[in-house]
Amino acid sequence: MPADKLAIRKAEPKDAKKIIECMQSVMDEHIYFVSEYYLYTERGEQERLRNPDDLTLVASIGDRIAGVLTLQRGVYRKNRHTANLGIAVMNGYRHQGIGTGLIMESLHWAENNGIKKVNLEVFSTNVNAINAYSKIGFVHEGVRKSQFFINGEYADDVLMTYWIDQSISVGSI
Ligand SMILES: CC(C)(COP(=O)(O)OP(=O)(O)OC[C@H]1O[C@@H](n2cnc3c(N)ncnc32)[C@H](O)[C@@H]1OP(=O)(O)O)[C@@H](O)C(=O)NCCC(=O)NCCS
């Protein structure tokens, strides 16, 4: 039997349960996210997936969901040109190009939807993620020192940005 192919696609409300399971399994590793529990119930997640301002992509392999990416656009007029990126690829599916595929697809969506910069936050201890983001072209924008305490050690909050519109990257100061 041929192996199921990987597909990167927009999430649909029917994916809600598997998205929650994927996110929760990565949160259960306790070293990648601040939150220990996924915020939404299945009904809440279905509702979130209907919000046209946000993008949720899934990496599906047959009927499994191996990775989830969310881009949440700024909700105010002053920050609607930005979006925050969150991503989780399940243990066992990492380092196979899935994360890069999800991020590249989301950057196309951001560009086509008037977003000028895509932001994310990552623990300084998450070297694999920082490497993945850097290879794609995210740059360090700042750092909040010892913002987190993880397994007995302090970690920094690293702020990274991908400039869709490089011309605004000079800022106002
Ligand atoms: C970070 C993450 C999204 C990257 O996705 P991925 O599918 O594993 O990454 P890719 O296969 O696209 O790899 C891209 C690069 O990431 C780095 N990388 C990812 N996993 C790695 C690993 N296990 N060991 C070493 N480098 C790794 C490498 O630089 C890699 O480039 P290379 O293939 O040329 O060596 C994914 O590993 C993940 O979800 N991790 C757990 C949750 C998490 O950290 N979320 C982000 C919180 S900010």
Description:
The chain is of the alpha+beta class and 173 residues long. The protein has a single domain (6-168), classed as Aminopeptidase. It has 4 helices and 7 strands; from the N terminus they run βααβββαβαββ. It has a 7-stranded mixed β-sheet, with helices on both faces. The protein is globular, with a radius of gyration of 16 Å. The relative contact order is 0.14. Coenzyme A is lined by residues 26, 32, 87-89, 94-100, 122, 126, 128-129, 131-132, 135.
Fold blueprint:
Layout: E1 6-10, H1 16-27, H2 42-49, E2 55-61, E3 64-73, E4 82-89, H3 98-112, E5 117-123, H4 127-136, E6 139-150, E7 153-163
Parallel strand pairs: 4-5
Antiparallel strand pairs: 1-2, 2-3, 3-4, 5-7, 6-7
The structure holds coenzyme A.
> What distance separates the N and C termini?
60 Å
* Average pLDDT figure: 96
Strand content: 25-35%
Structural class: alpha+beta
Q: Provide the low-confidence segments as ranges.
A: none
Which superfamily, in CATH terms, is the homologous superfamily?
Answer: Gcn5-related N-acetyltransferase (GNAT)
The number of strands is: 7
* CATH topology tier name: Aminopeptidase
The H-and-E topology, N to C, reads as EHHEEEHEHEE
Strand order of the largest sheet: 1-2-3-4-5-7-6
Described by the principal axes of the CA atoms, the overall outline is globular
Number of domains: 1
Q: Percent of residues in helical segments?
A: 25-40%
Search tags:
single chain; 173 residues; alpha+beta; Aminopeptidase; seven-stranded mixed β-sheet; 4 helices; 7 strands; 26% helix; globular; binds coenzyme A
